[in-house]
Amino acid sequence: MDPQDLDLINGLLDSDADLRERIKEHVIDFDKRTRTMVGMLNKVHSTASAEIPTLLDSVRPVLHSCQDTTAALAAIIPPNQFWRWKDMWNNSLRASVFSAVLIEFLANGTLLSLASVSEQLGIKEEWSDRFVLSVEDYLHGLISMINELSRLAVNAVTLGDYDAPIRISIFVKELFAGFSMLNLKNDILRRRFDSLKYDIKKIEEVVYDVSLRKLASPPTKPA
Amino acid sequence: MSVSAHPPSLIASAFLSFRDDIDDHNDRRERLIKCSRDITIASKKVVFLLHRIMTDSGADDRTLSLHAASEGQKALRNVQMLFMKITPEVEGDRFWRYQHNISPGLQEYIEALSFAHYLEHGTLITYNEVQKSLSDESGSPYFPLPMSDYILGLSDLTGELMRFAISSISKRGGRTKASEVSVFVRGCKADFEGLTPHIRDLSKKQAVTSQSLRKIEEAAYAIAVRSSEFDLSPEMLDDVVGQAISGYGENFDDMHTSGRRRPTSDEHEFE
């Protein structure tokens, strides 16, 4: 190979390696933040429902601090190269989606849309070729939330909140119906979706237990 | 915390749009994988074509090489058309999303292109030349050529060169050619060694290159040892071998003119 060409190749490869290092630094940061959040949210399993809003208020600032990371990543990813590097932060990003949607469900009982999650993470529209929240990542975050909610259904009962499993059951079933509409190929998302039935089964068992013993408050009449 | 505040249609309609997004992605992915396969098949045919022309008897080597290169380039233009066709599918940020779906075909194309280039110029095709072959008339690339695909494609070239060297070793001037090829392949191997930490899978390919190199070296050794038994000049040896081969008569010529490769000890290497 011509020494000049070899230099050119080495130069290009070195600058890629450089960029990888810089991304890695931010991803480590991102990872720290999401682990903190997930750790804090883990407390919902031992927090009485009255205390939950306070807990959520303490997590929100960490969620918003993720905006620094997304901005830093969007600033260093070269145009059009989002998909080249995104695998590096998949886990952190999905954990942050999980935190955002779980907080929203616990606070308002609703599903936080993909667009709203993007907004909470500070992802801007003009970054579309450098940093976006993909449908796949969002759905991964939702599945993590469903996994967590099946645990919460059990623990809420232990803490004396007998209505929570029913709210969770309605919400999760609706999400499951949504997931069933998708044509997933054989990938991790598909496998995780397939495992949702165990979460649903668990939640149903809890609902069965509390209804059988008439622990839950009677259903409100539909409007 | 009442769910009725959130009408079911909202979640359902969100998932409907996810379905479109996922279907769109999967369909595009399938189309590109299929295209990559077509490119692989077409490129392999070009490689066979080059080998076939190079083992033709008759004309001198230089003429054969130039003929092979020009035929090869002609056939490669069809492959380039395939790349041009996928341009809209890999526009903008999409390219890197589907890069690993296209890369098998891309590497196979680079292998064929670099083989034709080697036969014509005796050198390694440069990154810019490959990128230029994947650009329209005005010079704007169909997509950015990934460095890894360029290097991995060249790494496959060494295997073809080994086949080329061994199948021509019994031809007139074949031993000189085999030694040229081994010098060239050794050079490639040395150059690529420094790049292995940067490129995934390159170290595997380097191991294959080492094997190829060994095969050429052993073939060259066998010939050298045998020719030492005769006190003849290389040219006279070529003639002796040539006469012996012509003794096979009609059958052998038939095989040759019908474009079949002469069987070598390395036959199984052909896929």
Task: Give a short summary of the structure.
The complex is a heterodimer of chains A (223) and B (271). Chain A has 223 residues and is an all-alpha fold.
How would you sum up this structure, described in words?
The complex is a heterodimer of chains A (223) and B (271). Chain A has 223 residues and is mostly helical. Chain A has a single domain, classed as Methane Monooxygenase Hydroxylase, Chain G, domain 1, CATH 1.20.58.2140. Chain A is built from nine helices and no strands. The N and C termini of chain A lie far apart (77 Å). The mean pLDDT of chain A is 93. With 271 residues, chain B is mainly alpha-helical. Chain B folds into two domains: 35-120, Methane Monooxygenase Hydroxylase, Chain G, domain 1; 145-271, Translin, domain 2 (Methane Monooxygenase Hydroxylase, Chain G, domain 1, Up-down Bundle), CATH 1.20.58. Chain B is 73% helix and 0% strand. Chain B has nine helices and no strands. Chain B has helices at residues 8-54, 61-86, 94-121, 127-133, 147-168, 174-193, 202-227, 234-246, 250-257. In chain B, helix 3 runs parallel beside helix 5. Chain B starts with 7 loop residues before the first helix and ends in a 14-residue tail after the last helix. Chain A binds chain B through residues 1-2, 5-6, 8-10, 12-14, 16-17, 80-84, 108-111, 113-114, 128-130, 135-136, 138-139, 167, 170-171, 174-175, 177-179, 181-185, 220, 222-223, and chain B through 1-6, 8, 10-12, 14-16, 18-19, 21-23, 26, 92-97, 99, 123-124, 126-127, 147, 151, 187-188, 191, 194-195, 198-199. Chain A: This is Translin. Chain B: This is Translin. Chain B: It comes from Artomyces pyxidatus.
